[in-house]
């Protein structure tokens, strides 16, 4: 069976479009299909659409969160719920072309790949500034992190059960999927395709949301900022020690102590600034540790398709369990 995991946040127009697009491909797809739509606390009619769809079609399942938890949480919930031996993750807005699916399935079945990913070869239709920052982000993260991330790679990918289980074992609260998919390893090959625009609706990522997301990526997958902070601190220590010796020696030999309070003030400001910057960097890591140690669930489910199907037990699946969590006796 193939499970299709779709995170949805305010996608009432695109959910039916996506479903139809995939159904049209059905004859070309050998395994049986299971849809898992994850409603990430949408404020529009997405949940209503999902209820309709699940009532009509047996192969459609959905999970609806109690509030907005973010795409990463939705992906995790979907992967946890997926039962197929192959699992694909796909955006609801048709920016991830479903037509690639048959080819991806064929690739996984005919080779011993564990994952077929997709990447867009251009970013047409995207604001220039955003593309620029995106490129810089990939350059930076690949330089400072041992986890490599492919520029332009989408979350859209087909994975084997083995790889999905590996991703699920990473049950951290701060999730950065692009990194997690790469961190677990396995053999991945990428299919390239030209960028597509959304079928309907609008993107929920503002520039600042993306900027923060990229900082999250760096903090989650690299310790370089901490190293840089200590390196700069060490360097300025060394420089001021040299300067101090120079001043003392000069005063001893020529007896002229310079009247230099402007330089003094600027040095104090410089050092103060560096200290605050380093504190900020450390703070970001500590904030992550704080959230992580609280062990909060990644998401909370309010409703699933089972709540509306009378012939199935109404128990809502427990989202709280983290896989592989073993308690010491
Ligand atoms: N999404 C989500 N929660 C969010 C933001 C987005 O579940 O907080 C879903 C959204 O419904 C879509 C996918 O993630 O299916 C990608 O979102 P979007 O198209 O807005 O991002 P973009 O393609 O512009 O990067
Ligand atoms: Mg999109």
Automatic annotation (TrEMBL):
<feature type="region of interest" description="Disordered">
    <location>
        <begin position="304"/>
        <end position="329"/>
    </location>
</feature>
<protein>
    <submittedName>
        <fullName>Glycosyltransferase family 2 protein</fullName>
        <ecNumber>2.4.-.-</ecNumber>
    </submittedName>
</protein>
<dbReference type="InterPro" id="IPR001173">
    <property type="entry name" value="Glyco_trans_2-like"/>
</dbReference>
<keyword id="KW-0472">Membrane</keyword>
<dbReference type="Pfam" id="PF00535">
    <property type="entry name" value="Glycos_transf_2"/>
</dbReference>
<dbReference type="InterPro" id="IPR029044">
    <property type="entry name" value="Nucleotide-diphossugar_trans"/>
</dbReference>
<keyword id="KW-0808">Transferase</keyword>
<keyword id="KW-0328">Glycosyltransferase</keyword>
<keyword id="KW-1133">Transmembrane helix</keyword>
<feature type="transmembrane region" description="Helical">
    <location>
        <begin position="265"/>
        <end position="286"/>
    </location>
</feature>
<feature type="domain" description="Glycosyltransferase 2-like">
    <location>
        <begin position="3"/>
        <end position="166"/>
    </location>
</feature>
<dbReference type="InterPro" id="IPR050256">
    <property type="entry name" value="Glycosyltransferase_2"/>
</dbReference>
<dbReference type="GO" id="GO:0016757">
    <property type="term" value="F:glycosyltransferase activity"/>
</dbReference>
<feature type="transmembrane region" description="Helical">
    <location>
        <begin position="228"/>
        <end position="253"/>
    </location>
</feature>
<keyword id="KW-0812">Transmembrane</keyword>
